[in-house]
Amino acid sequence: KRSREKVDAKMRRANLFSAVFGSLGLVCAVCQNELVVLNVPSSAVSINILKAFNSLMTLLAIGGIYRTYYLHVLFTRIMMHLTRGHDLYTDVKMKEVLQNKNFWLEVLVCAVHLPPFCSVTVSSEWQFNFMTHSSETVFAVINTSRVYLVCRCFADWTLSMLPKRHTIATYADLHIGYGFAFKRVFTGLAAVIYIALIWFLSLVVVGYWYRASELTACQLYDEGVTPDDPRCLEENAVVWSMDNRNFFTKVNDLYMWNAVWATFITSTTVGYGDLVPTTLFSRACAAI
Predict the structure, then answer these.
(1) Does residue 224 carry a pLDDT above 60?
(2) Could you list the residue ranges that cross the membrane (predicted)?
(3) Over the chain, what HEC string results?
(4) What does pLDDT average to over the chain?
């Protein structure tokens, strides 16, 4: 508890712990959404098992986040002891972690998920077009925000390649943190590779958002099954219009790579190519 290097290593392991379990929860959310897209009932045992596993992974990820902030308080005390001569107290109280606003922000981002035996539809009407989203789809999109946990591990790995950074920071009276890590990544020839990887990851994530926003739950039912929302049987749930003059039949595009292609051509040209967003959120994804 009194070694700066050991506490720093423990923080990296805690970040890795929360990233692994947060990512596993994200995978569960994506899998349950894909089952719903394939017309598996949201009340199916397989979907509820995935939801329960996601809940467990969420709790473990939050535990890792708490451990990170706990160690950060201890690390700060050690740095103040070494640089300012303050007395070193290694006993960290829980309230010191709970008083940190950033801790609660991370808990809020990671805690939001769909628990077992819970499934609803979110309905909206835009430009006279009616559509619904299953809660599995909505929460799968929300859970993609956990990607930041992986980015933090990448920053930890970058900083770990500078074993004497704490000594340098002390003598130079500067802070070498995540901001410095990302600045270091974007220098030299390696920056081209990292920028390409970030761009590809952005295409996949935003493409997933685009696909989710274009899927209407009104079409995720087998023939003869009554939709949860009776408005799905109305004409404006099937026949859509973007200008109230030209009409087309709304059909779900289930292929993920079509959505990735849409985000790719939007990021490289000024138009949408052969795929046009038809919802407000998918237009926002295209704008991103």
Answers:
(1) no
(2) 53-75, 185-210
(3) CCCHHHHHHHHHHHHHHHHHHHHHHHHHHHHHHHHHHCCCCCCCHHHHHHHHHHHHHHHHHHHHHHHHHHHHHHHHHHHHHHHHCCCCCCCCCHHHHHCCHHHHHHHHHHHCCCCCCCCCEEEEEECCEEEEEEHHHHHHHHHHHHHHHHHHHHHHHHHHCCCCHHHHHHHHCCCCCHHHHHHHHCCCCHHHHHHHHHHHHHHHHHHHHHHHHHCCHHHCCCCCCCCCCHHHHCHHHCEEECCCCCEEECCCCCCHHHHHHHHHHHHHCCCCCCCCCCCHHHHHHHHC
(4) 85
